[in-house]
Every structure is written in structure tokens, then in C-alpha cells.
Specification:
74% of the residues lie in helices and 0% in strands. It has 508 residues and is mainly α. The protein starts with 19 loop residues before the first helix and ends in a 12-residue tail after the last helix. GO terms for molecular function: monosaccharide transmembrane transporter activity; symporter activity.
Length: 508
């Protein structure tokens, strides 16, 4: 039977402030985003490097340099090449489901530690790879690392952050992804110039740097008060941690809500079964829809294959990598802006602004490529520059909307009893569609040509309408009181209103 979650804090808000302790611990935990972003940037860069292609994917290398009859859009179409990129995400999908149990039973900290350690091992294997099998096995280890980190880090950040600043703190995860992506592109740009052709090894092996920071840093991370209460009977220790995190001794209202949430959690033996119950329907829909929509914006195929895409429009190897650096800078700066405004403007407003911006820029990119790039020959420098500018506008729109909010909103909407399972579903759906898009993009580019941008633009219209009609505003709402936003929403209250009217009287 389920227990009640009463509102014990005045006006739905708790006491507390942003403390240096919270900032420091969240900065360390957010390094989990750096390893994800670094991998996205590095894999796209090395797959455009000719020495890397010549060693591991000679068929692609031959098509790119010697086959003059093949279409510009089809030069990189290789299932083996896309398997190198996408194998990480199947491994991450499976790992995230296992990570749910680890995060729930043992806490957020052990999952972060396991993620860093697996990624560290994968980076070593990738840098030392002698054949494509070593390369892909290294990618699988990287995927396990990313699966554990992406499952646990957003939860950790949302639980540590004060409600008034939860958006900014959680977006630190996406900012870290941007920093990792930018760092990878800078490293690729530098290592491509190594004359002997082994620069790609440095690019792959340097993933060990953020992985080491995450692994060592996680040893010193405190567990969140939510997790301590959920997994321990030492409530006094949890209360002391909550006081330290909030920077005040007056935490009784929040502490009471955490205990009540934990009481509900302990009655739930099978979170993945319970999450399909009607009272959790809105959260389950969002756990599936938001990561799905985040991927069909087309962002990850553009970031994976940015250098490949730029080479498709006839830029040279070095210019392609430099253009990817530019998009990385633009994305990172835009995510930082999102951190500053998300708790003021709210989640819905940023979703709307970003959606309109992405749609318009994708239409422009698709139109320019359709008009200027044929199956053979090149495109003028001026038009290539214009295409890069619109891609940057697109990346900007994603970086202050669906990029950070795609991780923030799912991590803050789940009740404690299904929080770990819900986050695992979010990560698994995200990785599933990253895998599908990464595995199919080069083939779609070959067949759709410029129409690929209109395809993603159509999805952006759908997802913007979805947010407008079905996603309630969650800014400033304490995470353990989030069920209120569904009971007050025009659509979801029809489904959960009666169910949640008195949770203390219900049985599961």
C-alpha cells in the first residue's frame, strides 16, 4: 500500500541557499557530462581523419579519395563505420537499466564511481587499438561508463540543488557535455596535424582525463540526503547532511517531506512495474517522449558527424574540424546562458524559443544545400560559410532548450519511489534513439540528401507542439512536491487528479 506525501512546507518552498559545498560537489559530479560530450565530439572527429579511416575503414577511405562517381552524400555511408560510433549507445542503454538498481539500492555515488571507472578502461583500450574489434570493445566499455554516469549524475544534481536553483545546477550537466564536446573538437583539430598519422590515438586516449577526474572525484562525493534516507535508518546523519547542503539548520519541512517520500519508496519493491500505474502516467510519458524528441531534433547526428557533414559540403579535413570547434564554442556559450535564465523564464518558454529557432535554421540549411550542392562537385566558400552560420544558429537553439532541458525535466519530475527507474527509462530511450540515429544517419544522408534537414525540422514542429500542450511548468517546485504540477494541469489532472487526491489513503 502507498503512503501519503503531505505538503509540510509553507508556500511549497523550503529554507536554504546555494552553498559553496553544493557548488563544489555538483561541479565534480557534472564531470559525468564531460565524458559524454567528449565522446560525442571525439568519435565524429576521428571518423573524418584519413589515417584513422585508412587503418580501420579502408573502404570508406577509398570511396572518399578515389571514387569520383559516388555522390557527395554517400561517401561516408558504411555500416561498419556507424557501428563504431553507435556501439557505445547500445552498451549505454543496457548499462543504464542495470544502473537503476545500483543507484536505488546503493546510492547515487557508487553509480557515478562505476561510470568513471568503466569509461577510463574504455579510453585506454581505444587509444591502444590495433584492429577494429579492439576499437569497438573499447566503445562498449565507454558506453557502460556513460550509461551509469547519465543515469546517476542528473539525479544527483537535482537532489543536491535548492529548488530555486535546481534548473541552473542541473543544466551544469549539459554545460559539461558542451565543454567535453568542445575539448574533443579542439584536440581533434590539433592531433589531425600530426604528420605521422597517429594523432587519432591521442584523441581517443585523452578521454581518460575527464574519466580520471570523475572516478577520483566521486570517491570524495557525499551521498545525497534523499538517498541516505532511502537507504539508511540513520536519519540523524541524513538530517546533518541536509543542513550542510542547504546552509541552514532550519530544514525540518524539507526533511519531513524526504522521510515521507522514503516511506512511499520502501513500499515499492518493483519500481519498473509500478511506474506503469495510472498515477505515474504523466511521468512515464515524459520519460519516453522527452528523450525521444531530444534525439529527433537531429542534434546528435550533427554533433557526431559535424566534420563528416562539413566535408560533404566540400570543406577540407582541417577546415571541417575547425568548423566543428566553432559549433562547439557556440553550443557551450548558449548552454551557459540557459543556466542563467532557466529558473527565471521557466522550462516551457525555453522549449518554445529553442524549438522555433531550430525549425527555422534547419529549413534554411536544407534549402541552401538543396539549391547549391549537387551529387558531384563542390559548393562555394560563401555558401559553405552561410550553411555553417545556420548550423550554429541551430546548435544555439538546441543548447539553451532541448539540450539541457531534456536532462533537467525528467530528473526533477519523478517521485522518489520510482525516481531511479524513471531516470533509467529516460537514459535508455535516449540511448536507443541515439543508436538508431547514429546507425542510420549516413545512410539517410545518402538517400535523403538535403531532405534530411526537412525531416528533422518536421519533428521539431511536433515536439514544440507537444511541450506547449502537455508539459506543465516545473520551475521552483520542490522535487518532493512535484505531483502538484500534474494535478493542476488541464490535461493530466483528468488522469491523475482523482488518483492523487489523497495519496495517504491509497494502496498500490
Amino acid at each position: 500500500m502507498a503512503v501519503g506525501l503531505a505538503i509540510t512546507s509553507e508556500k511549497g518552498q523550503y529554507n536554504g541557499k546555494m552553498t559553496p559545498f553544493v557548488v563544489l560537489t555538483c561541479m565534480i559530479a557534472a564531470t559525468g557530462g564531460v565524458i559524454f560530450g567528449y565522446d560525442i565530439g571525439i568519435s565524429g572527429g576521428v571518423t573524418s581523419m584519413e589515417p584513422f579511416l585508412k587503418k580501420f575503414f579502408p573502404v570508406v577511405y577509398t570511396k572518399m579519395n578515389e571514387d569520383t562517381n559516388i555522390s557527395n552524400y554517400c561517401k561516408f555511408d558504411s555500416q561498419l563505420l556507424t557501428t563504431f560510433t553507435s556501439s557505445l549507445y547500445i552498451a549505454g542503454l543496457v548499462a543504464s537499466l542495470f544502473a537503476s538498481s545500483v543507484t536505488r539500492v546503493f546510492g547515487r555515488k557508487p553509480s557515478i564511481l562505476l561510470g568513471g571507472a568503466a569509461f577510463l578502461a574504455g579510453s585506454a583500450l581505444g587509444g591502444a587499438a590495433l584492429n577494429v574489434y579492439m576499437l569497438i570493445f573499447g566503445r562498449i566499455l565507454l558506453g557502460i561508463g556513460v550509461g551509469f554516469a547519465n543515469q546517476s549524475v542528473p539525479l544527483y544534481l537535482s537532489e543536491m540543488a535548492p529548488p530555486k536553483h535546481r534548473g541552473a545546477i542541473n543544466i551544469g550537466f549539459q554545460l559539461s557535455i558542451g565543454i567535453g564536446f568542445l575539448s574533443a573538437n579542439l584536440i581533434n583539430f590539433g592531433t589531425e596535424k600530426i604528420k605521422s598519422g597517429w594523432g587519432w590515438r591521442i584523441s581517443l586516449a585523452m578521454a581518460a582525463a575527464p574519466a580520471s577526474i570523475l572516478t577520483l572525484g566521486s570517491l570524495f562525493l557525499p551521498e545525497t540526503p534523499n538517498s541516505q534516507i532511502q537507504n539508511s535508518k540513520d536519519y540523524e546523519k541524513a538530517k546533518l547532511m541536509l543542513q550542510r547542503v542547504r546552509g541552514t539548520n532550519d530544514v525540518q519541512a524539507e526533511f519531513d517531506d524526504l522521510i515521507k517520500a522514503s516511506s512511499i519508496s520502501k513500499t515499492i519493491k518493483h519500481p519498473f512495474k509500478n511506474i506503469i500505474h495510472r498515477k505515474y502516467r504523466p511521468q512515464l510519458v515524459m520519460a519516453i517522449a522527452i528523450p525521444f524528441f531530444q534525439q529527433v531534433t537531429g542534434i546528435n547526428v550533427i554533433t557526431f558527424y559535424a566534420p563528416v557533414l562539413f566535408r560533404t559540403i566540400s570543406l577540407g579535413e582541417s577546415d571541417s574540424l575547425l568548423s566543428a570547434v566553432v559549433t562547439g564554442v557556440v553550443g557551450t556559450v548558449s548552454t551557459f546562458i540557459s543556466m542563467l535564465i532557466v529558473d527565471k523564464l521557466g522550462r516551457r518558454a525555453l522549449f518554445m524559443i529553442g524549438g522555433i529557432q531550430m525549425f527555422l535554421s534547419q529549413i534554411m540549411v536544407g534549402g541552401l544545400i538543396a539549391a547549391q550542392l549537387g551529387d558531384h562537385g563542390g559548393i562555394s566558400k560563401g555558401y559553405a560559410t552561410l550553411i555553417i552560420i545556420f548550423i550554429c544558429i541551430y546548435v544555439t537553439g538546441f543548447a539553451w532548450s532541448w539540450g539541457p532541458l531534456g536532462w533537467l525535466v525528467p530528473s526533477e519530475i519523478f517521485p522518489l519511489e520510482i525516481r531511479s527507474a524513471g531516470q533509467s527509462i529516460t537514459v535508455a530511450v535516449s540511448f536507443l534513439f541515439i543508436f538508431i540515429s547514429a546507425q542510420t544517419f549516413l545512410t539517410m544522408l545518402c538517400h535523403f540528401k538535403s531532405g534530411i534537414f526537412f525531416f528533422f525540422g518536421g519533428w521539431v514542429m511536433v515536439m514544440t507542439a507537444f511541450v506547449y500542450f502537455l508539459l506543465p511548468e516545473t520551475k521552483n517546485m520542490p522535487i518532493e512536491q512535484m505531483t502538484k504540477v500534474w494535478r493542476e494541469h488541464w490535461f493530466w489532472k483528468r488522469i491523475v487528479g482523482e488518483v492523487n487526491e489523497d495519496r495517504s489513503m491509497e494502496a498500490p
